[in-house]
Here is the input.
Amino acid sequence: MSAPWTSDDALVALVAALRARDYAFTTVTPATHAHVARRMGDAPARSLRDVFGWSRPFAEDLVPPDLFGLMREAGILARAGDLWRATIRLSSLDGELFVHAAYPPTAQDAVFFGPDTMRFVASVTQYLAGREAPVRRAVDVGCGSGAAGIAVAKRAPGAEVLLVDVNPNALAAAALNARLAGVTGTVPVSSDLLSGTEGRFDLVVSNPPFMLDAQGRTYRHGGGAFGEGLSLAVVEAAAERLNPRGALVLFTGSVIVEGEDPFREAALTACARAGLSAQYREYDPDAYGEELADPAYARADRIALAVLVATREG
Here is the structure.
């Protein structure tokens, strides 16, 4: 999604029409998507899932005329030789359909959505299910598609939920996805971490980029020695802005080096310094194994996925 769509209204109507046709799609990792794409070869799309999920080129007569007209009006059609491609994907999560970048998400300003989005939202909703204090003000830092912030808004009616990102395309996608989900109280904010926001929060949620990406793509590159730079910055920013009984739910990746977890130690130290109680657990001990072939990970044993919940006592 390197350029914004031309009509939100047309996209809303398109999603409604797809829902009426029982469209659903689970987005996989780029590596899995590439494997499936190779298996499909040059074959054009055979279904709406191929068009809006697998980003396959399609013949115009595959898509019902009403949908094709809405795609044209929304500005999400691109030529692929004699065929067409959709320039967005639509993926299922938490009972909603989310707009995000078509495959492959190679643009610097791509809006990424994948299995980690699902794991992140699951971690946030699990936390909310056990939280006793009300959430009146929350923020999704590096919101991307807005999936986690929208999940919070659905479960905290009346709360103000800021959807924060440095990527204008992400803010546009998050605003549209909030509209598609029918939630109120979400506010897109252009901000580097929390620098463009004011006040304190009952809940900060974040799934920041945590890879070392040579291309420096916004949705992927985390900086630091092993990709942990942005994750630590989120911890430190949240620590300054949490209300009493406020919490940070951070879903991230952590590179394990010679059996040690440098991010865990740095994050727990930052929490202790700020007076926050913290719980840290590995969500998945071994993810993104294909990345270990990159020289940037020459010292890595593995890349773990982890959840940090840090709370300011009330």
